[in-house]
Amino acid sequence: MKRILVPVDFSENSVFAVDIAVRIANSLKSKLRLMHVRTGKQYFPDFAKDNPRFIIEDNDEAYMAHLVDRAKARYDVENGVVDYKFRQGNVVKEITNQAHYDDSIIIVCGTHGVSGFEDRWIGSNAYRLVSNAPCPVLAVRKEMDVSGEHKILIPIDSQKVSRMIVPNVT
What we know:
By secondary structure, this protein is of the alpha/beta class. Helix content is 41%, strand content 17%.
C-alpha cells in the first residue's frame, strides 16, 4: 500500500497539512505517516493553547498522539494505517531520508510562507524540502481554500520527460 508522509512541527499550518493529507490518503487508499524531527528547540503547539493537559515542555509524544488520534477519526481506508515516527537532526535531511525509506508517494507539509530577513537569506525548510525530496511535495497553508475544484499549474519545458508528465497529472 502506498504511503503519504506528513512532517509535523505542531504549528497551525502543519496541523492543517495533516487534515489535507487525510483527505488525500482516503482518496488514494494509502497509508499515512506523520513525522516530527527533533531539533532540540522547545515549542508549544497552537492547538494546545487552551488545553492544560498539554502545558508540559518537551511533550512531543503526547502532541503527536493527539494528532494521530485526530487523523484516525477522519481516516477511512480499509486495512489502512496511520502511524508516526520521530527523527533527530536536520529537518530537511531527515524528512527526505524518511520519504526515501518509506517510498512515499507524496509529502504533504504545512508552510508559513516567506517572512522576515532570515527566511529570505537562508531559505525556508519547505523550499529546501521541495528542492531535495525524492517524491512530489504539496506545501499547504491554513488560509488555503481546499473546497471545490481547482486548476493545477504544471510547469514544463521542452524536454521529452517534462512533456511525458502531463498525461499523468491530467
